[in-house]
Amino acid sequence: MKYSYCGKTGMKVPVLSFGASSLGSVFHETREAESIKAVFTAIENGMNFIDVSPYYGHYKAETVLGKALKDIPRDHFLLSTKVGRYGKDGLNTWDYSARRATESVYESMERLHLDYIDLINVHDIEFADLNQVVNETLPALVELRDKGIVKHVGITDLQLENLQWVIDRVPEGTVETILNFCHYCLNDDKLADYFDYFESKQIGIINASPLSMG
């Protein structure tokens, strides 16, 4: 497995990482035992950066992943999860308030059986009031970073313009990584237009869904 550093976070991550949305039966029904085995197999083969969210399977992905992680030494993996998007009883919900973001981090740590999170992201900011993300969500996560509850802070979005808009309006160092999807693949390489911008800000780039959501 090849590894590279993600921006200036100091996180040395594999070039191919583990997207854990499938553990929440997002694409099709999954069996818990097989899901847990998949996590062990990924880490054993060097795929030790895992990305998840409370939204995936409406908490199921984090819950199943947590059952695997509790039996894996903490220094064997890096964990990324998110705040802002949730769901219950089949209904999607969004809440980017500072209070909910803070609560969500602690709830995720409980489901994941962790006492800190390596990377916390504001999930899909296109669904948020971007001013709230700048003035409320991100400051709440930075406060948790200052306390050591989370190690690094990022934002995710399909629309690259939104990522730049937010980064341009927060103090330097607030946003350490971005996650963008479906824009660096065979039929769409728009993400490449922003490489110089993110590099100038020393922001790590996570290219999710390189197969354009299947």
Structural class computed from helices and strand pairing: alpha/beta
Radius of gyration: 16 Å
**Oligomer classification:** single chain
Helix content: 25-40%
Average pLDDT number: 96
Largest sheet: 7 strands, parallel
The H/E string reads EEEHEHEEEHEHEHEHE
Low-confidence stretches: none
Q: State the helix count.
A: 6
**Strand line-up in the sheet with most strands:** 3-4-5-8-9-10-11
Any key phrases for this structure?
alpha/beta; 214 residues; two-stranded antiparallel sheet; globular; seven-stranded parallel sheet; 11 strands
Please give a structural write-up:
- With 214 residues, this protein is an alpha/beta fold.
- Helix content is 33%, strand content 22%.
- The chain is built from 6 helices and 11 strands.
- It has helices at 32-44, 60-69, 98-112, 130-147, 160-167, 195-200, and strands at residues 3-5, 12-14, 18-19, 49-51, 78-83, 85-88, 91-94, 117-122, 150-156, 177-181, 204-208.
- The protein has a 7-stranded parallel beta sheet.
- Helix 3 (98-112) crosses helix 4 (130-147) and helix 4 packs across helix 5 (160-167).
- It starts with a strand and ends in a 6-residue tail after the last strand.
- The model has no long low-confidence stretch (mean pLDDT 96).
